[in-house]
Write a structure and sequence with these properties.
Layout (H helix, E strand, L loop, with lengths): L2 H18 L41 H13 L3 H12 L1 H9 L9 H19 L7 H19 L2 H13 L5 H21 L10 H12 L1 H14 L4 H10 L10 H27 L3 H7 L3 H13 L3 H32 L1
Helix pairs in contact: 1-2, 3-4, 4-12, 4-14, 5-12, 6-8, 7-8, 9-10, 9-15, 10-15, 11-12, 11-15, 12-13, 14-15
């Protein structure tokens, strides 16, 4: 059963319960009227226990049960509609508010991130069809291989000259030998791909395992990649935080906690943006999809300035650096997922 079916079934069940049991949720129906907290026994003052935080009156209706399901799993609450507009339009203010402790009005960064990841993979499962490798795709791969071949070949003459100079001086050449050997492997693979050859062995054991599995069962590999990316998406947070720290090294004003909140809200926005672009593309609006994907640098800039109060020039420089860091972080994540997929 797909995620969208689960959501639909939960909502339908909740509405059905309201129909069968219309008085559910009214003040005098399905409530307990205790004077002490049922959880810890503390005398009650107000609507919540001041000791453990549990609600004073426990709802005992089916309607309340399914309301809690929607509330707890999908965050159907007013906070979402306050948080998302802030995340889109004033990301720096939202991040700074949460860091400074003004949190009651907003969804926490981690909860929003997990919810946005759920939406993304629900959209992937709903809009993605079976992968087909058309002739146009093969031409693109060949063109990229030719480009990669040129880039991989360029440093080799200089590296070989450097090695010869080091050898003449009697210096250790083990490290540069490894670099030359690795580049020669890349050049060999790129040459074969540029010639239109279907690669079965790259010389790198990890990639060879992934390629073998993809050749044998491509749909299974796609499923496993999606599944592993969904399960380990949270790893992007600890991967990204050190890179953000590099923008403010040894700063006494900003701490790792601040950077973690920033990264988690930023990843939430990027995930929601990807979901929106994917849905727009599936609905036949590629222009909207393309336009949306141009917004990340602007969002990063606004979030940096609002969170860290940097100057405009400082914001531009740090946004450029953050874009590079984000690409590196995604590359590390992709390699880790590929390794996990190959191992699984």
């Amino acid at each position: 059963m797909s995620e969208t079916q689960v959501i639909g079934d939960a909502i339908s069940t909740s509405l059905l319960v309201r129909t069968v049991e219309p008085s559910a949720g009214e003040a005098d129906q399905g409530h307990t009227h205790e004077s002490a907290c049922l959880n810890c026994g503390t005398p009650l003052i107000g609507s919540h226990c001041h000791n453990c935080g549990q609600t004073a009156h426990v709802h005992r209706t089916l309607g309340a049960f399914f309301h809690d399901l929607l509330h707890g799993v999908f965050h159907f609450e007013g906070k979402v509609w306050r948080t998302i507009p802030m995340l889109v339009l004033r990301p720096g203010t939202l991040t700074r508010e949460y860091i400074d402790g003004r949190r009651a009005s907003y969804v926490s960064p981690l909860a929003l991130f997990l919810f946005s990841v759920f939406l993304l993979f629900a959209a992937i499962n709903s809009t993605a069809g079976k992968a087909e490798f058309a002739e146009g795709d093969q031409a693109k791969v060949k063109a990229e291989a030719i480009k990669g071949l040129s880039q991989a070949q360029q440093p080799l003459p200089a590296l070989r000259q450097k090695r010869a100079a080091m050898e003449a001086k009697g210096e250790d050449t083990d490290e540069i030998d490894q670099e030359i050997a690795s580049r020669e492997k890349v050049v060999a693979v790129a040459s074969r791909m540029a010639g239109g050859e279907h690669i079965k062995s790259t010389g790198f054991s990890l990639l060879d395992g992934v390629i073998d599995e993809a050749t044998a069962n491509p749909n299974l590999v796609i499923y496993k990649m999606q599944s592993h990316a969904y399960k380990y998406s949270w790893v992007l947070i600890p991967i990204s935080v050190p890179f953000l720290w590099l923008l403010f090294p040894f700063s006494r004003r900003f701490h790792l906690y601040d950077h973690t909140v920033f990264v988690t809200y930023s990843l939430s926005f990027m995930t929601l943006l990807s979901t929106t672009a994917m849905v727009a593309g599936a609905l036949g609006a590629p222009a909207i999809s393309g336009f949306l994907m141009l917004t990340p640098p602007l969002h990063m800039y606004r979030q940096l300035r609002g969170t860290y109060s940097v100057s405009r020039f400082g914001g531009v420089l740090r946004t450029a650096a953050l874009g590079i860091f984000a690409f590196i972080a995604l590359l590390i994540f992709a390699v880790a997922i590929a390794a996990e997929t190959g191992a699984g």
